[in-house]
């Protein structure tokens, strides 16, 4: 369970990193626009785990994007520091991960789609054509009197 301070710092870092990738350093990622799926900050606010994703990724471009981010990690942290210097005393170390939850969900959807689930058979004790038992009446209707 994250503390409120961790949640606030995570939210701030997510917003500012998105701005860094889109406005400050787009030239570092030609043809690849990394998106920030989430940021998780350690309890001491010293390390931030950043989960990256890219919509409409071609095969293998996720790892390519992650390699580019790792190569330019120092520049990214410096640009982030300029944006959060008034809010945070120390900029956390950034550790980048590729978020593959969308690919995992697509794979699970495909697996479930291939399953052949037979219809449930009625119990031998059940009589499917029998009428339902009548419910007891709590109040007399005017029509019965």
Automatic annotation (TrEMBL):
Residues 117-145 are annotated as: Disordered. It is found in: Cytoplasm. It holds the Pfam family RBFA. SUPFAM superfamilies: Ribosome-binding factor A, RbfA (SSF89919). GO terms for cellular component: cytosol. Residues 131-145 have a biased composition (Basic and acidic residues). Its main location: cytoplasm. Belongs to the RbfA family. One of several proteins that assist in the late maturation steps of the functional core of the 30S ribosomal subunit. Associates with free 30S ribosomal subunits (but not with 30S subunits that are part of 70S ribosomes or polysomes). Required for efficient processing of 16S rRNA. May interact with the 5'-terminal helix region of 16S rRNA. Monomer. Binds 30S ribosomal subunits, but not 50S ribosomal subunits or 70S ribosomes. PANTHER family: RIBOSOME-BINDING FACTOR A, CHLOROPLASTIC-RELATED (PTHR33515:SF1). This is Ribosome-binding factor A. It comes from Hymenobacter telluris. The lineage of its organism: Bacteria, Pseudomonadati, Bacteroidota, Cytophagia, Cytophagales. The gene is rbfA.
